[in-house]
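Let's do one together. I've listed all components of the complex below, 707 residues spread over two lines.
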Amino acid sequence: MSAREDVLGRIRQALGETRAAVPEVVRDYRQEHPTTGPELLDLVVDRVEDYRATVLRCAPADVAATVRAALDQALGAGWAAGDVVVAPGLPQEWRPEGCDVDDDRPAVQLADRAASVTAVAVAIAETGTLVLDGSPACGRRALSLLPDCLVCVVTADQVVGGVPEGLARLDPLRPLTMVSGPSATSDIELERVEGVHGPRTLVVVLVQPPRVGG
Amino acid sequence: MTATVPPKAPTFLGLPTAPRGVGHLRGDQSFPDAARGALRDGQLRANLGHATSTIRGKRARVVAEVPDWEQLRAAGKALKAATMARLDEHLEELERQVTARGGVVHWARDANEANEIVTRLVLATGAPEVVKVKSMATQEIGLNEALEAAGLDVFETDLAELIVQLGEDQPSHILVPAIHKNRAEIREIFARTIPGVDPGLTDDPRRLAMAARQHLRERFLRARVAVSGANFAVAETGTLTVVESEGNGRMCLTLPETLITVMGIEKVVPTWRDLEVFLQLLPRSSTGERMNPYTSTWAGVTPGDGPQEFHLVLLDNGRTAVLADEVGREALHCIRCSACLNVCPVYERTGGHSYGSVYPGPIGAILSPQLTGVEDNASLPYASSLCGACFEVCPVAIDIPSILVHLRAEHVEAQEKPTAEGLAFTALARAMSNPRLWHLAQRAAGLGRLLSRGRPTLPNALPPPVSGWTRSRDLPTPPARTFVQQWTEEHGR
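Okay, and this is what the predicted structure of the assembly comes out as:
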């Protein structure tokens, strides 16, 4: 008998011939986070900053300039064009001048770059989580992993309240990376240290809708 | 991998348990014997006390801010129970979905078979080394030893696993395997074992983490094969999930050409939506964070992104024997958060090594004996004061105390010859059901005062079989007068 048949046979034996009914799963936990509007953006900012990441808010017209400011802050002004690589599908109007675009070069070559810039698929406010989904705007997984500084551009409509709302917006067939702050470890005396193998610096550029009224 | 194969393959309820002679589910000593040594190690107790109290505080803070925590726990428990009730169907669906997306699914009856499969797959790539993501399943089966026996170099990449590997040590905690080491001890291990390490390395955790980053960076970039575990696998979509903090997991899951994931069969969940429960419960229970820094999910192979060859090894190794026990099967619901270790007064004092298994603490005390058969880990169901703190913090509400009692009963019933304890309790039951015998016995017990030499407890060096009881418990000196005698005197009846 194959191992497959054996293991499945053991499970059937363990569960018995007359199987008990499948217990009901009651989902009476919160499906929607109560926070909305400007408070929702305040919440995501608060939660991302709590991980010791930086958040820069800007208007839709100022994304490229804000990304540049984020890079200046992280890399020091005067960074060279080749230091920064952006996701191939990042909207043109978000890209600061002089950035390299990721192509199908071997992924390990991205390790030489100082920073990368990507979009996100969803941002979950309650947990301060950005989700990248491997789409052209988010780039392949290595792009947000190897350079030591990651800049993510998040638009206000991408921000949801809680984990259930976030997962509902995602495609589980894509390779997803959920990012909550910079890489970190608590393995030494459970003291949190930011920055191990992933990017040590995380900057979020939050694009806010223009304010309505006064 | 022809380790000394034991003569008898143990079974439970007719189903094979994890084989002897391979992996890390059985200790060399019983729990009380191993714990005695650990309790004398003041440094170990200080390290554990500091670490567990820190993490308890963090967990309590982030759990308290979730208004629907109890509803999430109940849903997590029900989801696991529902999955186990149709485990075969979910695994078949998972296999179909992973295969449809370019992955290859393998089935392993036990540790030996899983080790053989992974070794064969690695050797087929021609790579001389593998990088590993921290994984309980591969620790359980002793995969590193098997790969090394085949001439391969194995690099653990999680910081704590690296500390354990470089220190030629054993993990002592599910989440933080090097929890028993403090910063000075870790500095000493790094200075001694990492080639070319900065001689001025201090014991600042940040500096130590940077030393690990440097040490592993080049290995990640040249790695051709990675081995991982999985926290969850979604049957309906074939999506695998790894939850981590450092980014070493992402390195392993993204950069190599070949990825081999070893997963216990109980890690399957039916639907994508189910992760909305577990991704809330796990990080808060485990590291005490709202969300862990990185969670990676993937379904099969994605052209142009990540490994182009993906193997999933589904591991039994005693899990079906656990499933056969209607009370004990709840141990399979565990999502390996380690909250129960951190609150356990026994774990906090004895540390993880005393349990002799990669699964220490309260969950280990119910999981290890069931995976191996109770006779091979007979002391573990007793490694608890039954205080119930583990049940209270468990994110999927596993009733650990009840399962401990269940396993104790099973162990006692399996004894062929009556034990001294058994005889004593039989005699006690007789005495307690007969007033005359009871009063006589009480007066006889009063003679115990002669041994006390005026102290409040009897000496613990009593002769066997009584020593079996007094070695780890204080037996109070019997009072001069029993309650009934006092009552009679004072109320004159």
